[in-house]
Amino acid sequence: MLEARDLKKVYRQGSVSLPVLKGVSLRIERGEFVAITGASGAGKSTLLHLLAGLDVPTEGEVRWEGRSLSSMSDRERAQVRNQAFGFVFQFYHLLPELTALENVMIPGLLNPKRSRKHLRQRATELLAKVGLKDRATHRPGQLSGGELQRVAIARALVNEPRVLFCDEPTGNLDSKTGEQVSQLLINLRKQAGVSLVLVTHEPELAELADRWLALSDGLLVSETAQGVGHGRGARGRAGRSVKAGSDRD
């Protein structure tokens, strides 16, 4: 469904070049939960942004349902991001002047085929699913960090995406709240039947994935196929080193 082929990304500032990804290939299957880990600077977020069409590779390509994202027009790529992909980030990115309900509705407002009445109903149902039914009229400044991330998760699901991209979704939360948000994401992903691609520093969260990919210095260095539904404790059952002599980190 989603495939990366030999992705390379180089950032340039004047005469200085900084290679971040050095040739990464992978495939995300329908309904699969894939965790991506690695040290800071390993290229995790860059890889996620390329897979999600938020950035374009220097070399290589990302293919969505057989089509290269890079070959699409800006309008087509934006349509894929809006209608097929959902996004959850570490710092929420909610609009402070809007209520929780209005923030959840935002992606749907960009789709002319969605009626406002249906969209409001969908957003209300999602807020109930994330445990915030009674907080729908509250603005971000009136919500806790965990509640803000729950609103962001509801917003990411409002257009019924087929792939949910999460970049350190628990990185700005305390451990207890982070664990609650992680479990919520996993449960909602199962209910919605979407693929989940998640960047995290937390091995406990990565162990819950169907596959655990580790990046180091811009390369995919190990892959652990943990098996759908095996979850915690399955780590290493079908692990393999992608690059000879490399460790996970």
Q: How would you describe the overall organization of this protein?
A:
Residues 228-238 and 241-249 have low confidence and may be disordered. The protein is an alpha/beta fold. It has one domain (2-241): P-loop containing nucleotide triphosphate hydrolases (Rossmann fold, 3-Layer(aba) Sandwich), CATH 3.40.50. It is globular and about 50 Å long. The strands form 2 sheets. A 7-stranded mixed β-sheet has the order 6-7-8-3-9-10-11. A 4-stranded antiparallel β-sheet has the order 2-1-4-5, covered by helices on one side. The chain has helices at residues 44-51, 74-83, 100-109, 116-129, 145-157, 175-192, 203-206; strands at 2-13, 16-28, 33-37, 59-64, 67-68, 85-89, 163-167, 195-199, 211-216, 219-225, 239-241. It contains 7 helices and 11 strands. Helix 3 (100-109) packs parallel to helix 5 (145-157).
> CATH top level?
Alpha Beta
CATH architecture, by name, is 3-Layer(aba) Sandwich
Radius of gyration equals 18 Å
Most strands sheet: 7 strands, mixed
Describe the global form: globular
What is the β-strand count? 11
Strand order of the largest sheet: 6-7-8-3-9-10-11
Total separate domains: 1
CATH topology: Rossmann fold
Write out the CATH superfamily name: P-loop containing nucleotide triphosphate hydrolases
